[in-house]
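Milestone M4 deliverable, item 7.
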Amino acid sequence: MTYTPDYPTFVESRLKDGGAILKDMTPEKADLIHLAMLISGEAGEILDAIKKHVIYNKPLDIENLDEECGDILFGITALLRRIGRSEDGCKARNVEKLMKRYATGYSDRAAQERADK
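Output delivered:
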């Protein structure tokens, strides 16, 4: 495989055209992408709050973290409803997966071997 020195042209040749994405956009797809961006953005705000505490040694802003977690719960609840799933069902599937992965509790070995995959 040969690397092309004109990397920006290569990148452009591999991107899906925004017009093609827009052409296939539906209100349902727009809703899903909006919720995914909401969840991702709020997760970034949580990461930033933790970074300030861990890296800059600022006090942990519990009120802010609580608020951001609430925003994520809001987005996740809405996303689950859009895809026809419930919070309880999601939790149950997560427990089932993690019981397979960590049958006797967490271990690095179990995490590496991923028995649920």
